[in-house]
Design a protein that fits this description.
This protein has 441 residues and is α+β, with helices and mostly antiparallel strands. It contains 15 helices and 7 strands.
Length: 441
């Protein structure tokens, strides 16, 4: 770029933002200076220097100041920011040259008081330019040199002792400002890059919180955030179906070949599940070999069964890990908002319950949470509550045999009588939140 030979893309937009903020101030000040020149030298010859050039520069400064003011909150790309900064530099250089011609012409006809006015205007303009361009090193140095250096040369060329001393002071001012601009630029660059590093660390932390490190897909935290957002957006207007996927046959692979092969299988399965169907959203790894997703506005049970079958077929294709050719499948449970539940966590638990029954029914299949599942869940929870009555005390070996189960149920006669006879298989089952996990993978 013209304004910065070693510019890097990460600094272009911060510089542009600072530039847009300061340009209306600079152009407003330039317009005021040109108006003052026109007032001080009104009616003086040459009219080109005393009226036409100041009027042209004042009008241009007003239009450019309004133009930059309207661009304050406009989003831009790096390429557009570079183009605008280069254009602004070209216009400022041209304006500085015209102003130099104007001042040089007026200096020859000006009185001592008018010369002091022109010198003061030059110095103040350079200070404003310093404030506006401190984040653009070469642009700022060029602006200061174009404004102050001609004034210093003009003072020295006057030949009087006060004028020579004034010119030398201006030369030292030019050198000091140039040094200050270099330091300010370095500080601005350090500040911007520090801010960008903090932003990158924040984004990395957010990613670590939302992405599963093994598979690279979203994790449980992301899934429930996305599901809650989808439920809020669909409230009263549509449906959201939650699907919970559990791999069949993964545990023997993980136990036989180790976690390296197991992680490779999980990564490939996650990729297949994520890319299987476009309507599947929020595919995430919940933990272990369990995944979850949701589908918005499914047309009914046949549509969900179609989606489930497509995901099952995607996982059943052979998996090649190194020299191994492996095979897994999956079972899927569905629960739909608002028919099954309205809260994200309850909806997930109902889908998990349907998944448990899909695995019990033979695996590699899909199951949709229904009224029958709700009744079965209530019945099993009633049995568990009956077995955990106030007089029941778990031994160190719970459910060691069907007979011990019957004896424990009998120890709370009234609650057991209300719930009916307890089946050993149901009594030995863990709570509903972990039913499926009691089975083998």
């Amino acid at each position: 770029m013209i304004f910065e030979r070693r510019a890097t893309p990460d600094l272009v937009l911060p510089r542009y933002d600072a530039f847009v903020t300061m340009m209306p101030l600079l152009y407003g000040f330039l317009a005021a200076v040109m108006l003052a020149v026109m007032v001080v030298f009104r009616g003086r010859e040459p009219l080109l220097a005393s009226f036409f050039l100041p009027a042209f520069l004042m009008a241009t400064a007003c239009m450019r100041g309004v133009w930059w003011h309207r661009r304050r909150n406009e989003p831009v790309t790096i390429a557009l920011a570079q183009t605008r900064l280069n254009q602004a530099l070209a216009m400022l250089v041209a304006g500085s040259l015209l102003a130099g011609v104007m001042v040089w012409s007026l200096f020859s006809v000006a009185s001592p008081e008018e010369r002091r006015f022109l010198t003061t205007a030059y110095v103040l303009t350079s200070l404003v330019g310093l404030c506006c361009f401190s984040h653009l090193r070469y642009m700022a140095v060029l602006c200061v040199v174009l404004i102050l250096l001609p004034a210093a040369v003009q003072e020295v060329s006057a030949g009087t002792e006060p004028a020579i001393l004034s010119g030398l002071i201006l030369l030292f001012t030019v050198a000091g400002m140039a040094r200050f601009l270099i330091v300010s630029y370095d500080q601005f660059t350090l500040l911007v890059r520090s801010k960008m590093e903090i932003q990158q660390l924040h984004e990395q932390n957010v990613r670590l919180l939302s992405v599963d490190m093994v598979t690279g897909i979203p994790n449980r935290r992301y899934f429930f955030d996305a599901l809650s957002a989808a439920l809020s957006a669909s409230e009263g207007t549509g449906t959201v179906s939650v699907g919970v996927v559990d791999l069949d046959g993964f545990k023997p692979i993980n136990d036989s070949y180790g976690h390296r092969v197991g992680d490779a299988v999980l990564r490939e399965v996650a990729r297949r599940l994520s890319e299987a169907l476009p309507e599947v959203r929020g595919m995430s790894r919940i933990g272990g070999d369990e995944f979850a997703f949701f589908v918005e506005n499914a047309t009914g049970s046949p549509d969900l069964m179609r989606i489930g079958q497509a995901l099952i077929e995607a996982t059943q294709r052979p998996l090649v890990v190194g020299d191994l050719t492996l095979s897994v499948s999956c079972s899927i449970g569905f629960a739909t908002y608002p028919d099954a539940a309205r809260e994200a966590d309850i909806l997930f638990e109902f889908a998990d319950f349907a998944l448990y029954h899909a695995k019990r029914a033979g695996r590699s299949r899909s199951e949709i949470f229904s009224a029958e599942h709700r009744a079965l869940m209530s019945a099993e929870d009633s049995i568990e509550q009956a077995l955990r009555g106030p007089t029941w005390r778990p031994s160190s070996r719970p459910c060691s045999s069907p007979w011990s189960t019957w004896s424990r149920a009998a120890s709370s006669p009234w609650s057991a009588w209300r719930a009916g006879p307890a089946r050993p298989s149901a009594a030995c089952r863990p709570p509903s939140s972990s039913r499926r996990r009691s089975g083998p993978g």
